[in-house]
Amino acid sequence: DTAVSQTPKYLVTQMGNDKSIKCEQNLGHDTMYWYKQDSKKFLKIMFSYNNKELIINETVPNRFSPKSPDKAHLNLHINSLELGDSAVYFCASSPGAGGMNTGELFFGEGSRLTVL
Amino acid sequence: GENVEQHPSTLSVQEGDSAVIKCTYSDSASNYFPWYKQELGKRPQLIIDIRSNVGEKKDQRIAVTLNKTAKHFSLHITETQPEDSAVYFCAASWDTGFQKLVFGTGTRLLVSP
Fold first, then answer.
1. In the 8-state DSSP scheme, what is residue B3?
2. Choosing among B4, B36, B43, which should be mutated to test the A contact, i.e. which has the most A CBs within 10 A?
3. Fewest CB atoms less than 10 Å from the CB: which of A39, A89, A106, B65?
4. B111 in helix, strand or coil?
């Protein structure tokens, strides 16, 4: 069973289009994240949700809109795609605050977005 | 906010040699320092971490050291093997609950047989 799964794994689209990436975790974690990894491999946090509530929003353009329908799912919708949005987007989860939390982030396999 | 610098950006060693990757952080409030390994085309995975109340931690061939005063922490890999080849990321955060991990820029380690 995959702990953190993302779909699609690959996405190729034209500038100006709107696309979504979905993420689901079956670890029972409270907190989920979106990270962006660019072509230079820089990993940067975009958003974090804890129990469906947004807790981190890192100066990401408002073309990016995350949605968490429940604590096991965190989706990312991107409007009006631009060339610079090309990257690998990683979903991740962690247990959240609490004594059992080791701090480890569990990443999904990534979704490679290519904007032409 | 936190800023993490990582050096070197690439590191080539012969199998059996040791490898050391160094990071510095800016926010003295940071208290959690993990290291992630990312193999080509794969997801980042935690390999070791250290908290600010500890100066050193070891797990088989890998160890991490932390100098809080200097705001430095390092990853040490001994007896490197070709399967250690990957990109390694250091990171820092001030809270292990709601993680706002700030990652370093990554080090590409190549271990030649």
1. -
2. B43
3. A39
4. strand
In this predicted structure, the answer to whether residue A100 has a pLDDT above a threshold of 90 is no
Pairing mode of beta strands B4-7, A106-107: unpaired
Q: Considering only residues 25 to 84 of chain A, which have any Cβ-Cβ distance to chain B shorter than 8 Å?
A: 31, 33, 40-45, 48, 50, 55-56
DSSP string, chain A: --SEEEE-SEEEE-TT--EEEEEEE-S--SEEEEEEE-TT--EEEEEEEETTEEEEE-S--TTEEEEEEETTEEEEEE-S--GGG-EEEEEEEE--SSTT-----EE---EEEEE-
B14-61: pLDDT as tens digits: 999 999 999 999 988 888 899 999 999 999 999 999 988 889 999 999
Q: How far apart are CA B25 and CA B20, in angstroms?
A: 17
* Residue type present at position A89: Y
Q: Considering only CA atoms, which of A88, A69, A86, A65 is closest in space to residue A77?
A: A65
- Maximum CA extent, chain B: 41
A99 touches chain B (CB under 8 A): no
What's the CA gap between B66 and B73, in Å, rounded? 4
User: How much of chain B, in percent, has pLDDT values that exceed 90?
Assistant: 79
Round to whole Å and give the CA distance between A91 and A2. Answer: 13
Nearest by CB to B98, from A42, A43, A48: name it: A48
> Given this model, what pLDDT does residue A1 score?
65
